[in-house]
Amino acid sequence: MKNFTLLFSALLFITSCNQNLEKKSPKKDSIIKHVDPFIGTGGHGHTYPGATVPFGMLQVSPVNGKSSWDWCSGYHYSDSIAVGFSHLSLSGTGIGDLADILFMPVNKTVDITNTPQSRDSLSYKSTYSHNNEKATPGYYQVFLEDHDINVELTTSLRTAYHKYTFKPDDTQTVVVNLGFAINWDKATETSINIEDKYTISGYRYSTGWARNQKVFFVAKFSKPITKQTLVSDKETIENNVVTGTQTATQLFFKADDNNELLAKVALSSVSIDNAKDNLEADGFNFETVKKQAESTWETALSKIEVDTEIDSLKTIFYTAMYHAQLAPVTFSDKNGQFRKENDSVETASNYTAYSTLSLWDTFRAEHPLLTLIAPDKVSDITNTMLAYYETKQILPVWTLYGNETNTMTGYHSIPVIVEAYLKGIRGFDAEKAYDAMKTTMMQDERGLKFYKEYGYIPYNLLDESVTITLEYAYDDWCVAQMAKALGKTEDYNYFSKRSEAYKFLFDNESGFMRGKSENGKSWNTPFDPKYSNHREHTDYTEGNAWQHSWFVPHNVENFIELHGSNDIFTDRLEQLFTESSEITGSNTSADISGLIGQYAHGNEPSHHIAYMFNHADKPWRTQYWSRYILDTQYNTTPNGLSGNEDCGQMSAWYALSSIGLYPMNPASTEYEIGSPIFDKASINISEGKSFTIEAEHVSSENIYIQSATLNGNPFNQSFISHKTILEGGTLHFIMGNTPNKSWGINKNSKN
């Protein structure tokens, strides 16, 4: 009895210890469960729901087969027809392309000799329902109703995995169509090779937004191919290899007791051999790859962890973090090689090359976010841009599959490079980078000839003259900061002077930036600040004077002086948000969306504006308007983005603004402070080091900062430096429902 009592006591002690251990080490909540990849697939978000990994080479996703604007990613939530599953997708762009190497499982013999210009007469398209469709980070599933096939997709960095589950006794086939023209591209040459009973390979050359796109592929199947039909330019070819402008194949597999057919696919911009090298050698363990993708996403998303009792806010935040890590995409092969637009093959030595560089959008918040959560990617992206620079001795504008598209204005690879260097990110040749920036800004293309001659771009010599001038002025300021850091005093003075180009275009009487003629005396008339014309016969890019008159992020204090006073400046800022939302003109840009007054959150030129109140001694107005934007421009539905996602920019704005920070001038290495929405947000800098932002009493009403401390010391400024964040610590806010108009206007201290 005594021994039993001792044994019972020991068991109680062990149980108590285990319970205490459980209390001390609770199981960590999964982050990926908060991500909804369908957010942004409706409305004008232009995102895709398919499977990828952070910055992955492949984006394997369903394709609806329409070329309308809202189908830029290949998919739109309003649709219910699938024509296949592609391996390259664009996230949130305003122009369509990619959707290359289409696979479509079907359960019957179909006619593939017909390659129509629309999906209507495709014999193998299928309907599907959102009720039987699922997407999570690294995984996508849909049931094809016309073929009774369940499709599942996942991927690693360079290999995509397909899993098709057929009905018992159904014919098991897969159509591979390389000729179908969707998303505004056109196949110029394609080829398919049945290499053996398990393997096919080939290539697709096309022209579209990427003018010289070359995609090579290899695919292996889990079952032997028992029969195939091969077509070249609408003719059936009795051979194992076909080449033509439009090629396709239908592959047949044995319908045995195993209703599952698996495939794995790898691509390359260089060669079929490189695609084979990219293809993972291990078997077809779909679930293992899926779990690895989920684990990779869990790590990537945990770089910033937020605490709140409001689940919808977690969904919006972590989906934003997800979208912000879809692009840029890995472009170099396993051996480091990648193709440039002139068909030269570059080898990335000691770095990974990237493409899908939407720099006009992403320099604003996406790249600053990466300096916090993925600094290793930043140096690789810089090395990639320097490689693209060698093609024409001009830095990238908008690079798609190694092609310079010259889409949008400015040379915003420059602020990305300067921000990286000034934030202490190395891993690239700073002198080489500086030479590239200087050479780019001293050449004559894209209006720079006029800019250098007049100090601004006259409206009668080039469309979008105001936007281009303002953006070149900012790029110049960034070059000047790099020159200063490298001890190039003469260049610093030269580019600093050029960065004042905004002064030429400021009309003090109206408070707007306006088009000026080459004589330097007359404005472009008649003038209507609400007028917008899309890309032609206009002084502004995808917007109007209301939206584009605020782009002086590098010298806000002087900009305020031009207006006359803080009060005049902030009165005009307030009017931006409260003016009627009417846009005049007969050819207005669809990009003007997410309107709050004339503020257009759905397009990037507006993204920094709410934070300018901080520089006019009214930070409580920044707190008000940044919170208003957070509350009204994002939600958890497929329409949850108020404009094009633009390769992460819309989401990066949310991810940073929601924790209370925003890089109004990215290359300044400072973040403006807005209105945090989470009880607590921790930026995980490195193992064992984090920077935590706490917002005590925060709620939908308590949006105003009452007081703050940094590591226990009083903190009374509306900005914080990147350096301070990297040191780790805690920034603690007390929030309330009325403004504290004395907080955040002390400019004497800097952290």
Keywords:
single chain; disordered N terminus; 19 helices; 9-stranded antiparallel sheet; 28% helix; alpha+beta; 6-stranded mixed sheet
Please give a quick description of this structure.
This protein is an alpha+beta fold and 751 residues long. The protein is built from 19 helices and 38 strands.
Shape: globular
The number of helical elements comes to: 19
Mean pLDDT: 94
Q: Give the strand order, joined by hyphens, for the main sheet.
A: 6-7-8-9-18-13-12-11-16
Count the E strands.
Answer: 38
Radius of gyration (Å) = 27 Å
The helicity comes to 25-40%
Beta-strand residue percentage: 15-25%
- Biggest sheet descriptor: 9 strands, antiparallel
Oligomer: single chain
Secondary-structure content class: alpha+beta
| Low-confidence parts | 1-25
State the end-to-end CA separation.
68 Å
